[in-house]
Amino acid sequence: MTDAAGFTAGLLLAGPLAGDSWRWTFLLPAPVALVLLVWGLRVIPGSVRKKPGRPGAAVLRNGALVRATLGAAALNGSYIGLLLLATFRASGDFGWQPWQIALALLPASVPLAMSVPFAGRLVQGYGTARLIAAGTCCALAGQSYGLLHPEPLPYVTGLLPALLLVEAGFVLSFAALNMQATQSVEPALRAAAVPVYQTGVQASSVLMLPLVAGIATLTGSFRTPLLATSLAAALGLAAAVTGLRGGPRGR
After folding, report:
1. CA distances from 73 to 29, 121, 173, 220 (A)
2. Banded pLDDT at 248 (limits 50, 70, 90)
């Protein structure tokens, strides 16, 4: 919930800040991150260092964790790439100001922040595997919608449906992916499993942002970089489908 709320708040703040100067979008998060670091050191309890041997191999052999990591990485990477392309389109084709772009992207973040408190009930009712598969399906549908409509349609019929479909993917599968990643390993291995999962999620953004921006710059088109984000979303769906073979409800 805090992740989704932070992303939403960042969008709201980034619009007016970028309208004044783009440098504010890099300067303002620095003191916030420093405060959170100091606060975290005070409230997060320390852990006793143990020698669990070599948990890395056992973690990487866990199929559910690997699927969750691939699914979350594909979901996050394709999402970040789509937001970048939406920003390019809104500023270039629509001529919108930064604050207008920030408001236009809210449908891609607010639903998740509002739905996360109820994610536990969804998982209890449908299981992680089904929710992840449904979520990755929605994400691919959103990317495909944009791919099939590369011309600059109006926001309501162009960008908005793609953003809502991708966000529906997050609403369905974001919490389920996190739960699958942590609950599929033994408690003794979670200290090694969580960094693997989070590294995969964050690395996808690091890879997709320059890839999408570079393709868009070289080709000067909207469709070609959307093809890259769609392929990433398809990879997430493929990983999710393999998880259904072990039982539709997941663990």
Report:
1. 24, 24, 12, 26
2. very low
